[in-house]
Amino acid sequence: MHLQTFITFVGLLSPALAQRILPGAYIAEIKGTNSNAFLDKARSSGIRVRHRMALNQETSIFNGISFDLEDDTAENRAKIESWGEVVQLSPVRLYDAAAPVARRISRDTAAVISKRAAEGFETTTFPPHLQGGVHKLRSQGLTGTGIKIAVIDTGIDYTHPSLGGKFGPGNKVSFGTDLVGENYTGSNTPVPSDDPIDCAGHGTHVAGTIAAVDKDFTGVAPNVELGAYRVFGCPNGSAGSASNDVLISAFLQAQADGADLITASIGGPSGWTADPWAQVVQRIVEAGTPCSIAAGNEGSEGLFYASGAADAVGAIAVASINNINSPEVLTSAKYSSSKSVKEKTFGYTAATGTFGSETYEVYVPIVDGQISDGCSGLPEDATALGNKMVAIRRGTCTFDAKVQAAVARGAKNVIIVNNVPGTIQASVTVGNVNVGMVEPQTGAAWLDLVNAKETVSTTFDKTSPVFITAVENPITGGSLSIFTSWGPTNEMYQRPHIGAPGGNILSTYPVKFGGYAVLSGTSMATPFVAGVIGLYLENAKKLGRKVTPAELRVGLATTGKPLLFNDGAKNSTFLAPVAQQGGGLIDAFKFVNSKTIVDRDLLEFNDTQHFRKSLDFKLTNAGSETVSYKLTSFGGATAYALKEGSTLAQQFPPTLLESYSTVTIEPSTLEIKPGQSKRVVVRVTPPAGLDEARVPVYGGWINIAYANGEDQLRIPYMGVAAHMKKATVTNFEEGYPILMNVRNQTLSVNGTEVSRSAPPRFAWSLALGSGLVRIDVVSVSAPESNDVTVFDDKTVGSFPGYPNYWNPRNSANTRNTAVWNGRVVKKEGGAPVRVPAGNYKFVYRALKLTGRKHTGRDYERWESPSFHWSP
Ligand SMILES: *[C@@H]1O[C@H](CO)[C@@H](O)[C@H](O)[C@H]1NC(C)=O
Ligand SMILES: *[C@@H]1O[C@H](CO)[C@@H](O)[C@H](O)[C@H]1NC(C)=O
Ligand SMILES: *[C@@H]1O[C@H](CO)[C@@H](O)[C@H](O)[C@H]1NC(C)=O
Ligand SMILES: *[C@@H]1O[C@H](CO)[C@@H](O)[C@H](O)[C@H]1NC(C)=O
Ligand SMILES: *[C@@H]1O[C@H](CO)[C@@H](O)[C@H](O)[C@H]1NC(C)=O
Ligand SMILES: *[C@@H]1O[C@H](CO)[C@@H](O)[C@H](O)[C@H]1NC(C)=O
To answer: Is the pLDDT of residue 353 over 50?
Structure first.
């Protein structure tokens, strides 16, 4: 089979919806563990529910059940909520495998995949390992032996020789389960099995980064045991979505199975800690099992776009940093020349068609001593090209124009010679022609041979193996990936904590897809951190030490290296904001070996209203000698969250300012005896001269060094230099909220006729997150029927299904809509009742950030024009 390499770009431009709720599906957290009793009660109350999942384990972290409500009415929900054993009823939400941002995948059933002997782990030269300091831990003898890491993902292709070949005890992938089945989309009913094989690819890539043992590379911790918890199917060959009841169930099972660490490269816009999945993560962490979670790939949305469940209290949120190299998966072919070269191997990336198993003479058009770029046609001597391979240099005009120039002279096979290091998959739409790309040095060698009057010929073999090579990435290599989602959360907590190589990462891929792929995303950075945690835990185990999740989170966030801002094209001269990078690039060696320890991962100074006048931390000397410390600080850029003169978020890159806080550290020099600790107090004065209306987010690092200058730790600090309760959360600027008719036409006058058959629709959109959005209904024609008080409004009740809690801000150009069916709910969780014909209006309220639920003035309020309702 011919090997085809393709690149697709997803994620950056696709608008992420604010909320993805599975209609009719709910999670009930219940007292006691008996979900059968819950189901019996539903049946005896005449409520038809279809059981989805039992969400409990002996560990009692969470007891609940998820179900589909066949008749999804507010009455039925209200009844269920009123049962004494129901603690909380929440809608089932959908999440995605944090989508790879750019994928370069080799697809070939004939690829040669080889593992290597499980030895020689004390060295690794894999570029991401050198970048993150893993090689130094390996040479310390750490490989992850005895540590179990649960991977919540698309499953793992354990048949891959580099991932052990088999599933079950005694193998690399030794535990786990399939919670959903291959046909699961996120919306249909999960069909569990006990085989967590991966049919989509994502989880196999993640697993390889943690623990592969391949001839070309190894995972970070090649001797850990992996648990595969499959929460995605592959409905159309790629991962669908996962619902949070499935995610909760997977996390609970992984914890009950004794995982030392649970890792998930999954997320979606949130920024609130109250989602049930985030709650379960928080409880699992509190019960002692650490969780590493991808920070999300929504960097394009700008600040205040933290992802769930990376935002869970206690989770470790991971940012991505670009590999210093761009690895490539190339197909091999050979070339020979009439005299000097015999069967020299070269690699190419196919663009379109297939070169089959053929030998072609290479035609190298030469213009001004260079291979022609084909942009003004081919030279006169370009004849009889039908059986030749035409080489054309990349640049000046489009790939199509070059290929067309060759086809115009009868060519059927074209090789584009790259003009920058490496290859890409050229985008070619010209038909009836086979096209591939070679690296510049291959083209240069051919040019030299032709200049030396030799004839060059290429030989392709459609069964030839892929091979892996790497070129330097001088543009963005080593810098922060622009796709990482930025913090802070809607509650002013910093996410991410730490970054790891996640951009352009080579790892294992399902055997049926060719065995290897180069992917990018915080999905790829998270397993790197998981592997490093595996090494840390192994080290602690050897020392007989018990480790808490907090120790890991603090250690990771404070041993990193802050990086310069990079806008995707070049480095700036200043450090990127803490809101984008947390602690910066992971330093695995320092994380495991630091003899200086603090007890805080982040110093979060909150907004100006809730400004923390001081924050403190405990500094411990875990070494064996008395040490003198010197504490200083340095700043990262300040970022404006909002566009100038606007209430809307600024898309990437936000406006950055080289404005820094003034930081006081007391004491700033101190001497600590071995095993002793001292308190340090930090005070911050935010940068001066900022435009508060644009919601500036400032930050930097407290630098802890030995008196001799040797760097130890850096604690990230950050805060918001605005009074957040004054920031506008509703997207009024683009005309929201909107009252619409059934055809989505805006109703801007009073008195429009609406009815059950042509109901009104309400659209709202958030410029910033809001913890509570409510819509209430006011009778205009019969004021005496307004018997429910909502702050200053007398209403007939609220829109069924509202209030809506814990709303992330909308991504650009998205909105939320709700249809009104003439019913209202008199109190939250109450049964909906019909209202009679008459004139009504809607009153919308959105709680401002940091606002209090019961304080009317903490809400934004808007009222709609009135309309006439006929049932
Ligand atoms: C998934 O769906 C396909 C097509 O309908 C079917 O052939 C296959 O058996 C299903 N797989 C499972 C595990 O149910
Ligand atoms: C698979 O793709 C087809 C065609 O694009 C689409 O109609 C179908 O809904 C998809 N199935 C699933 C389960 O996503
Ligand atoms: C950009 O900065 C990163 C880290 O801050 C560094 O690794 C990389 O080499 C820099 N790139 C260039 C082109 O200077
Ligand atoms: C900031 O203040 C708000 C309001 O008191 C609080 O809810 C939130 O937890 C605080 N955030 C942090 C990071 O302390
Ligand atoms: C109105 O908008 C909603 C969602 O925004 C959409 O589902 C619906 O199809 C639209 N209706 C019409 C008639 O365009
Ligand atoms: C609708 O009527 C109210 C109350 O009489 C009035 O305040 C408002 O301006 C009117 N709105 C429109 C769009 O005419």
So the answer is: yes
